[in-house]
Amino acid sequence: MATVTTDSIGSPLVLHFGPAINRFTEDELFEFCQRNRDLRIERTHSGDLIIRPPSGGETGRSNSGLNYQLVAWNERVRQGEVFDSSTGFRLPGGPLRSPDAAWVALDRWRALTRAQRKKFPPLAPDLVVEIRSETDSLRPLRAKMHEYIECGVRLGWLIDPMARRVEVYRPGKKPQTLKAPRTVSGDPVLPGFVLQLERIWSD
Questions:
Q1: Position 37 confidence tier, pLDDT thresholds 50, 70, 90
Q2: Same domain for 77 and 144?
C-alpha cells in the first residue's frame, strides 16, 4: 500500500509506494501531472511522488525575478533555453524534478525530438536553481542539489532568501557557500551571466 507523509502545513506531501504497487509509467506520470496542473509533482529515484502546493507570494516573487534575469540574458546571447518551475525534467535513472529555474544549452535542446520536448525532457539541465521557501527544510533541498549534480547538471544554485545565502554546486567540487552576496556568476556554464540578488532576498 501507499503511505503519505508531510512535515507541516505548507510542506510537500510525499507518497511512499510499497514494492507491490505498480508505479507510474512515463506516459501515466505525464498524464497524472497534466490532470493536476495546479500542483508541482516530482518523483524520486525510489518512485515516491512529492506533491507541492502552489507557491506563496514571496517565493513566487523571487522566482519571477530569477527567471526574468535568466530570460533577459538568454535573449541577448541566444545560447540556450530557459525553463520555469512548471517544467519537469526526467533525469538519468528515473527521477522527475522541477527546479525553480533551469537552463539548457541550445545544442542539447535541439538534439531532442519534438515528442521528447512536448513531454518531460529526458535530460539534466546545464543549470538548475532552487529557491528555499519558509516551509522547506534544508536537508532534502541539499540532497536534491547533490542528486542534480550526480545526474549531470553542470551548475546548481541553492538560494536561501531568509538567510541571504547561496550554495553553489559543481561536479567534482564541494559546495561553496556565499554569505549575503550581491551577485553570483554563471561562468563558465552561462558565459557572462551574473544574477543580481537584491530582488530575490526577502525584505
A1: confident
A2: yes
Domain hosting 33: range is 2-52
Q: How confident is the model at residue 59 (pLDDT cuts 50, 70, 90)?
A: confident
Residue-wise pLDDT tens digits, 144-166: 999 999 999 999 999 999 999 99
Extended beta strands in 74-160, E state: 80-84, 89-90, 96-97, 101-105, 127-131, 155-160
* 89 and 25 co-located in one domain: no
152: region left, alpha or beta (phi > 0 left; psi from -120 to 50 alpha): left
Report if residue 22 sits inside a domain: yes
What total number of domains does the chain contain? 2
| Cα→Cα distances 36→22, 31, 87, 138, 154, Å | 20, 9, 13, 26, 30
Residues 74 and 164 placed together within one structural domain of the fold: yes
Residue with cell 517544467: 87
Do 96 and 89 contact (CB within 8 A), yes or no? yes
